[in-house]
Amino acid sequence: MLNLNFDPFPVLTTERLILRRFTFADAPKLFELRKDPVIMQYISRPLSKTLDDAIDLIKVINDLLKGNNGITWCITLKNEQEFVGSIGFWRIEKENYRAEIGYLLNPAYQGRGIMQEAIETIINYGFGPMSLHTIQANVSPDNLASIKLLQKNNFTQEAYFKENYFFNGVFEDTLVYTLLTKT
Ligand SMILES: CC(C)(COP(=O)(O)OP(=O)(O)OC[C@H]1O[C@@H](n2cnc3c(N)ncnc32)[C@H](O)[C@@H]1OP(=O)(O)O)[C@@H](O)C(=O)NCCC(=O)NCCS
C-alpha cells in the first residue's frame, strides 16, 4: 500500500517554471480558465460560474492534499510567480500504486513546451518520491494536444471506452492512456 506524505509541500523547479502549492490568491486566475467553455471543452467538469466556485476548487485541492489523497501543483513562470496552469495527481488508488494525472494551461502560454516541462517533472516525482507504479490519463479522443503530450511522454493507449461518461446530457467516449514505472 502506498504511504503518501505531501507535508512539507514538494515545490518543484524546472528550467523555466516553479511548481508550487495553490493559495486562495490564485483563485481569480484559476476562475478565468475554469469559466471558459473553449479552454474547458475537453475537461468534462462543470464550468465555474463565480469566483467562489474557483475558491471551492482550491479548497478541494487543499483538502485532498491535507489527507494525502491528491496533489496539485500551481504552475508559475520563474520570473512571474502567478498562476498560469495546474498539474497534479488525483483519484489515487493507494492499494494499486496508481494515480490519475490532470493538467490545464492558460492558452496564452500554450504551444511553448511549458506543459512538457511540467509533466516530465511530475512524472519523475510520481515514480520517484511518490512510488507510483502506474500513471493514468483519461482523455477525450478529440483532445489532440493532450494526446500528443501523452504520447511524447511514452504513455500508451490501453482502452477506448465508448460513451462511458455522461456529462451535460451527452454520453462521451474516453481514451485511457497509461505510463508504467520502469522496472
Ligand atoms: C494539453 C495542454 C496542457 C498542452 O500544453 P502545452 O504547454 O501547449 O503543450 P506543449 O507546448 O508542452 O506541447 C507538448 C507537445 O504537444 C504538442 N501539442 C501541443 N498543443 C497541440 C495542439 N493543439 N495540437 C497538436 N499538438 C499539440 C506539441 O507540438 C508538443 O509536441 P512536439 O514537441 O513533438 O511538437 C494544453 O493544450 C491545455 O491546457 N489544454 C486545455 C486543457 C486540457 O485539455 N487538459 C487535458 C485534459 S485530459
Rounded mean pLDDT score = 97
Bound molecules: coenzyme A
N-end to C-end Cα span: 18 Å
Largest sheet: 8 strands, mixed
Strand order of the largest sheet: 1-2-3-4-5-6-8-7
Gyration radius (Cα, Å) is 16 Å
Looking at the structure, the CATH topology of the domain at 12-132 is Aminopeptidase
CATH class identity of the domain at 12-132: Alpha Beta
What is the number of beta strands? 8
Please name the fourth-level CATH homologous superfamily of the domain at 12-132.
Gcn5-related N-acetyltransferase (GNAT)
Query: Which residues sit in consecutive blocks of at least 5 with pLDDT less than 50?
Result: none
Q: Helical segment tally?
A: 4
Helix content: 25-40%
CATH architecture annotation name of the domain at 12-132: 3-Layer(aba) Sandwich
Query: Helix-strand pattern, N to C?
Result: EEHHEEEHEHEE
Q: Which overall shape is indicated by the principal axes computed on the Cα atoms?
A: globular
Structural class: alpha+beta
Strand fraction equals 25-35%
**Assembly of the depicted chains:** single chain
Pick out its properties.
acyltransferase; alpha+beta; Aminopeptidase; EC 2.3.1.267; GNAT_dom; binds coenzyme A; 183 residues; 33% strand; N-acetyltransferase
Q: Can you characterise this structure?
A:
With 183 residues, this protein is of the alpha+beta class. The chain has a domain at 12-132: Gcn5-related N-acetyltransferase (GNAT) (Aminopeptidase), CATH 3.40.630.30. 26% of the residues lie in helices and 33% in strands. The protein has four helices and eight strands. The protein has helices spanning 27-34, 51-66, 114-127, 144-152; strands at 12-13, 17-20, 71-77, 83-93, 98-105, 134-139, 156-167, 170-180. The protein has an eight-stranded mixed β-sheet with strand order 1-2-3-4-5-6-8-7, sandwiched between helices. Strand 4 and strand 5 (98-105) form a beta hairpin. Helix 1 (27-34) packs across helix 2 (51-66). The protein is globular. The two termini are 18 Å apart. The mean pLDDT is 97. The structure holds coenzyme A. Coenzyme A (COA) binds next to strand 5, helix 3 and helix 4.
